[in-house]
Amino acid sequence: MSKYIFVTGGVCSSLGKGVAAASVGALLENRGLNIRMIKIDPYLNVDPGTMSPYQHGEVYVTDDGAETDLDLGNYARFTSSPLSKINSITTGQVYQEVIRKEREGRFLGRTVQVIPHITDEIKQRIFKVGDQKGVDVTIIEIGGTVGDIESIPFLEAARQFIHDLGKERVLFIHLTLVPSVSDGELKTKPTQHSVKSLREIGIQPDILLCRASKTIPDDLRRKISLFTNVEDKAVISAYDVQNTIYEIPLIFSEQNLDEIVLKKMGLPHSSCNLNWWQELVDTYNKSKKLVRIGLVGKYTELLDSYKSIYEALYHGGMANKSKIELKRIDSDKLMDQEKLEQSLRDVDGILIPGGFGERGIEGMIKAAAYARENGLPCFGICLGMQVMVIEYARNVLKWPDANSTEFAPDTEHPVISLLEEQIDIKMYGGTMRLGASESHLVSNTQIQKLYGRKIISERHRHRYEVSNVFRRSLSRAGLILSGFTPDSTLVETIEWPDHSWGIGVQYHPEFKSKPVLPHPLFSGFVAACLDYGKN
Ligand code: GLN
């Protein structure tokens, strides 16, 4: 019978609940258990697809085209549990469904209420994942912080799990902060209070993960244990890692977190082998080479906006035994040629990521031109690829007005334009070209050699495409159209001719990169940057 672990957060946000939940998942998977992961987001949006990256960070896309929270990316990188639409639950989805049923008259005259109707809908959604055949444990991360008004129905649903399934099948892990005050002294009071809030809702945590800048000494762990009723060995010190987040499962395992979970849930104690995690971390720590990559985007102030890209670059770095130093370059500030050269002079390559809207586009185009003319490796992803095509049309085909109709609807050279089926779409949510689809790569192109095969499947999230009207002119001018949809109707990848590494892809390869399986485009890009740096 499937078991359920709820991961909640206390004290404040941004403590790394997603990575903590993913690490628990990794450890249980390592013990041979078949796990699933769910992220609950207590906001009213149906999904984060319509939110600004500044509000929400990256939108992570699954194969089946769900636009989800970036924590699903953490789950994908730390575990091999399958992720799809059902693994992301929001308040918006829950209320939308309950209201739909109410309009259908499905509640037979009853008053529709948060308890039991909303909580039942939440539970059903969790069971839909956990009740799948062969699933041993489902880990549910509840977004937000205990005490938030928005989280209450989800915490209440979680509490009911104990009532419905019994104590053996449900476990609560609570992540808190143990801050240090001016002289470095660690303080446990915020943790005590946050556990108190959780207990007021009827949830007694079984395990505490205590974030702190350093290891929490045993006497303090005992004090936390005494005040919170959590066994002292289950008060885990989640101290800050020095180098890479991939150390976190190791830190938890050293303190026997996986053993404690197995014991408390009555799960079989199969052997644990974390050698490959250890090797991964050791390889990273021992890497001597350093690659400096310029990320030329418009949401550069918020690290989370390009979360999977950063991670995929690190994976590419690991594959090349190198550390990555990211230089965040705000494309808005590249309009002045001198500033542009100054910003790009000391990088070994640039990556132009995805994005929406006109702001910052001209700076990206200038950066692409600089990279193409100076042999600097350049990796364009989604919007980044569109920018590379616009730049080529402007500077090689000499069409100064070349643009995307997203930014210049009336240009005479709309080298990037809207898909036919997108033209009449008025609703923004979930209506882009979304999810996995196949592309066929042209033999002997750089990209085909990197993948080592001709047919690939990658995930999309965009409305605009390379215009077929200009395909011929672009390729006559030398731009290599290196990948297409299987029916050849859409261009999926492009390459600069006679260039060390100039590749643009309409899809998002970053979503499929894992530390154990670095994506070939990211490994290839980092290798090219290393070469460039040598010269
Ligand atoms: N704005 C572009 C489009 O919709 C690119 C989207 C993206 O980079 N994800 O096609």
Structural features, described:
- By secondary structure, this protein is α/β, with parallel strands linked by helices.
- It folds into two domains: 278 residues, 3-Layer(aba) Sandwich (Rossmann fold); 248 residues, Rossmann fold (3-Layer(aba) Sandwich).
- Helix 1 runs parallel beside helix 3.
- The protein is built from 18 helices and 21 strands.
- A hairpin with a 6-residue loop joins strand 19 and strand 20.
- The longest helix has 17 residues.
- The structure holds glutamine.
- The site of glutamine (GLN) has 10 residues, from strand 17.
Percent helix, as a range, is 25-40%
- According to CATH, what is the topology of the largest domain? Rossmann fold
Secondary structure: number of strands: 21
CATH class of the largest domain: Alpha Beta
* Bound ligands, named by name, code or SMILES: glutamine
What is the average per-residue confidence, as pLDDT, rounded to a whole number?
94
Pick out the low-confidence regions: none
Please tally the helical runs, counting DSSP H or I stretches of 4 or more residues: 18
Helix and strand content put the structural class at alpha/beta
CATH superfamily of the largest domain: P-loop containing nucleotide triphosphate hydrolases
Summarize the topology.
Blueprint: E1 3-9, H1 17-30, E2 35-41, H2 53-56, E3 60-61, E4 67-68, H3 71-78, E5 88-90, H4 91-103, H5 114-130, E6 137-142, H6 152-165, E7 170-177, H7 189-200, E8 207-212, H8 218-228, E9 235-239, H9 248-254, H10 257-265, H11 275-286, E10 289-297, H12 307-319, E11 322-330, H13 337-345, E12 349-352, H14 361-374, E13 378-381, H15 383-395, E14 403-404, E15 414-418, E16 433-441, H16 446-451, E17 455-462, E18 464-466, H17 471-476, E19 480-484, E20 491-495, E21 502-505, H18 520-534
Parallel strand pairs: 1-6, 1-7, 2-5, 2-6, 7-8, 8-9, 10-11, 10-12, 12-13, 13-21, 14-15
Antiparallel strand pairs: 3-4, 15-18, 16-17, 16-19, 19-20, 20-21
This protein binds glutamine.
Glutamine is lined by residues 354-356, 382-383, 406, 461-464.
